[in-house]
Amino acid sequence: MDRMVINGGERLIGEVAVSGAKNAALPLMAAAILADGPCVIRGVPHLRDINTFKRLLAQLGGVCEGEDDLRIDATNITNTEAPYELVKTMRASTLVLGPLLAKYGKARVSLPGGCAIGARPIDIHLKALEQMGAKIRLVHGYVEAEANGLRGARLIFDMPSVGATENLMMAACLAKGETVIENAAREPEIVNLADMLRAMGAEIVGDGEETIRIQGVKVLSGAEVDLIPDRIEAGTLMVAAAMTRGNVLLKNAGAAYLTAVIDKLRKTGLIVEQEDEGVRCVGPRRIRSADLTTQPYPGFPTDMQAQFMTLMSVAGGMSVINETIFENRYMHVLELQRMGADIQVQGRTAIVRGVPLLSGAQVMATDLRASACLILGGLAAEGQTVVHRIYHLDRGYEAIEKKLSALGADIQREAE
Ligand code: EPZ
């Protein structure tokens, strides 16, 4: 297991390219299950979660080749089970449920179990699949689903779940008749998935809006698709520029997907300007405080909450942060406190009182975005910060230490 050692205080200056989006790549990889013929996903980041999904597809009988341009041929799937060993390390494995059921009429997928950031049940996915005619049993920790041909239905989600929207959109593509998803998630990753499904021959309208309509077709073919940029990696790098009084040009930043994040960061003093080559971010001399409430897209993403909290921990003034998506996404607070941050949590609200400077410390990453926030803290802190358990970071940030070093940070990966 590796750790990251950071000597804080360096300004970040230079250019950096944002990688393809992990959270778009995973559903696109699942969608390849629906195709008769190979699919190619271009611009895939090198991440642990991508490798886990490749292992899952291989276990099902799919063939994955290539890295940046990932070719998946899942035409001859032989197995319809996603085992506990893979699902427990990556909840997104549950995205194979809809495609397997739609194409093969059955699927056995481990229930994901607990998660560091909240309960994260998949009840919305299961209820909607039942409405489309699936028979679902929960046996020995597994979801066992069967359907003798799914049929279109009107699905009204209790909340705009990203995963449920993706799973059901994929399932509906091969169902009989029309499916309408109401209160659907509107994230850019949903649109990227719909673009791939359309390229495969699916009939989908309304993606990116609250109501998505899918007309089922009999077969889907292979397709090629470009991955969108990782908006959370881009946002994390923007906060890094803000915290180090940096001057960073983000290439492939996907600014159009970051409106809420950019608006909020501008309120804290970060200068963000679109240039021909990318998005320039110039950090302020003094960071101003701002309040934050996380929301489904197009609101401010929960996946940027921890990073924003680190920024607020060195702002001038007090910030009130409300986390509305996950009930337990404040595990990073105790670690930030070890670095001298002044944060109080009451339920889903955190009150952050800015301090002049964080102090380097030994800290422990608890989940992906918590890891990122500790790295950010380390970049701006006085002295040395050692972030342990960074395997979480490797799930979602491609070569982050290389990108930050190239910008001038003093950061090194070491074996524990
Ligand atoms: C996706 O998770 C992302 N993961 C998460 O990214 C992200 O935090 C989340 O969306 C919210 O934006 C991927 O795209 C692979 P949800 P997902 O279903 O689909 C509740 C990261 O750091 N809910 O939109 O699992 C759920 O408990 C991560 O990259 C139900 O109650 O999120 C949560 O409170 C972590 N029942 C809320 O909805 C359900 O059946 C939103 O979850 C489904 C969800």
Quickly list its features.
14 helices, UDP-n-acetylglucosamine1-carboxyvinyl-transferase, Chain, binds ligand EPZ, 2 domains, four-stranded mixed beta sheet, alpha/beta, 416 residues, 26 strands, single chain
Describe the fold and architecture:
It is a single chain. This protein is α/β, with parallel strands linked by helices and 416 residues long. It folds into 2 domains: 205 residues, Alpha-beta prism (UDP-n-acetylglucosamine1-carboxyvinyl-transferase, Chain), CATH 3.65.10.10; 205 residues, Enolpyruvate transferase domain (UDP-n-acetylglucosamine1-carboxyvinyl-transferase, Chain), CATH 3.65.10. The protein is 31% helix and 26% strand. The chain contains 14 helices and 26 strands. The strands form 7 sheets. A 4-stranded mixed sheet has the order 24-25-1-26, covered by helices on one side. The chain has a 4-stranded mixed sheet with strand order 2-17-19-18. β11, α6 and β12 form a beta-alpha-beta unit. α10 packs parallel to α12. The longest helix has 13 residues. It is elongated and about 65 Å long. The relative contact order is 0.16. Ligand EPZ binds next to α1, α5, α6 and α12.
Provide a concise account of the structure shown.
The chain is an alpha/beta fold and 416 residues long. It has 14 helices and 26 strands.
CATH T-level topology of the largest domain:
UDP-n-acetylglucosamine1-carboxyvinyl-transferase, Chain
In helices, the fraction of residues equals 25-40%
Beta fraction of the residues? 25-35%
Mean pLDDT: 97
Q: Provide the CATH top-level class of the largest domain.
A: Alpha Beta
Rg, rounded, reads 21 Å
Distance between the terminal alpha carbons, to the nearest Å? 6 Å
The assigned structural class equals alpha/beta
User: Could you give me the name of the CATH homologous superfamily of the largest domain?
Assistant: Enolpyruvate transferase domain
Strand tally is: 26
CATH architecture of the largest domain: Alpha-beta prism
Strand order of the largest sheet: 24-25-1-26
How would you describe the shape? elongated
Bound molecules: ligand EPZ
**Largest β sheet strand count, sense and barrel closure:** 4 strands, mixed
Low-pLDDT regions: none
Total helical elements: 14
